[in-house]
Structures are given as C-alpha cells and as structure tokens.
Amino acid sequence: MPITEWPKDERPRERLIKQGAAALSDAELLAIFLRVGVTGKSAVDLARELIERFGSLAGLFAASKAELCAVKGMGEAKYVQLQAVLEMARRALDEKIKQTDALNSPQAVRDYLRLTLARLPHEVFVAVFLTAQNRVIVVEELFRGTLTQTSVYPREIVKRALAHNAASVILAHNHPSGEANPSAADRSLTKALAEALALVDVRVLDHFIVAPGASLSFAEQGMLG
According to DSSP H, which parts of 100-218 are helical? Predict the structure, then answer.
C-alpha cells in the first residue's frame, strides 16, 4: 500500500512534523529522504530493504555508488543526494565543535568523528587539536593505512601539536572491518602518545575508536590513566 493511502497519523512525514525526527525509526527517516518507493513497495519498504541489505544506516552510508545503484529503485541521483546530505551534516558538526567547549560537548565531537570516520574503507588516524579553552583549532588526518594496520609516529603528532600551539588533543582512529574494542596495540599506542605529548605540556583528553555502528571513548572507559 502506498504511503499516501496510510492514515495521516502513521505517515512518516506527518509524524516527523508532529512528534519530531527523533520519534521516527531509521527506515522511516530514510523513507522521507527516498520520497518514493518502487512498484509493489512503499518508500518505507524500500528503506527497510536497504538497511537490511547493508546491515545498518552506517553500512548504507558507506556503500559505493555501484553497490547502491545495484538496488532497484536507487540510482546515481539518489547516491549523489545521499552524499550531499552526509557532507552537509559533517560540515554542520564541524562548525558546532569549533564554536563550543569540546569537553562540554563530548557528544558533538563523537558524532563528528563517527560521521567522518565510520564510512571509510581504510584505517586512518586523526587528531583534534584544542586551545587552552578546549576550543577546536583544527582536525587533521595524520596517518592512513590499510584495513588492519596504521603506522602512527608520536614524533609527528608532537610536531603538529606544537605547530598549532595546542594545549590538548583528542585522538581518534577507525576500525573499518571490526568492532570498536581497543586492541593491546591501541592501548600501548595511546600510552606512548600521552607520554610523548606530556613532554611538551600537551594533554591527551581522549582517544576514540570508531567502527561501523559503534564507537568507544578511552576516557569514558577509564583507559587514559
């Protein structure tokens, strides 16, 4: 049954207007973006199929143009629109974290890192350099590796921190093909970076690990000490 034939109080668009976006499911939100379904499927049905096919919204966002266009009802135009929406969201979060105290807005930092890193097919290591007032100076990708390993050099991070006159830093890297749980190497690296940066009076405030659909904060888990 087309969505236009649903009772008005059950239609995603009307529910969003009345109850707010947070009240809708992932499939309902995606259906509003899709606008229309395909023969025999409503936009909600198609949205559910896409989420099931790619495993999650994060999986859908990470899909290549070829993968997305292989789904009946999708195409290059929808792929372009989806990428534009994601980039606008990333830029909005970038503006938000640069205008606020990062320690008072930890969710904004987490959301920005998840949106930036979770979709990448390769492993990257980034640093969020902060002022003494915990304002974001810049977010830099410092190292890039394969799906399983990235070589991170403490000396280079210290050099970048000094170049930006940073007082503190938030570290982050992604696990493209795994979970957000830290490995022994992740723990060892975090300790080494914290010690190296402490020599130039730069504090490591947190280290985030981002994986598809999940993220972990070293600070929240008490693993920075």
Answer: 106-117, 154-163, 184-198
Cβ contact 209:174 at 8 Å: yes
pTM of the model: 0.71
Mention every residue, 6+ apart, whose C-beta is less than 8 A from residue 15.
9, 23, 24, 28
Structure token digits, residue 188 = 């060892």
CA distance 10 to 1: 13
Kindly compute the dihedral angle of the four CA atoms of residues 11, 17, 18, 19, in this order, to the nearest 10 degrees: 90
Query: Do 77 and 62 touch, CB atoms closer than 8 A?
Result: no
Task: With beta carbons less than 8 A apart as the criterion, state whether 223 and 206 touch.
Answer: no
pLDDT tens track, the chain, 225 positions: 566 667 777 788 888 998 998 898 999 999 898 888 887 788 888 999 999 998 888 778 878 899 999 998 888 999 999 889 888 888 887 787 777 776 666 778 888 888 888 878 789 999 999 999 988 999 999 998 865 556 888 999 999 999 999 999 999 999 987 788 898 889 999 999 999 999 999 999 999 999 887 889 999 899 887
Q: How far apart are CA 112 and CA 123, in angstroms?
A: 17
Structure token pair of residue 208:
């985030």
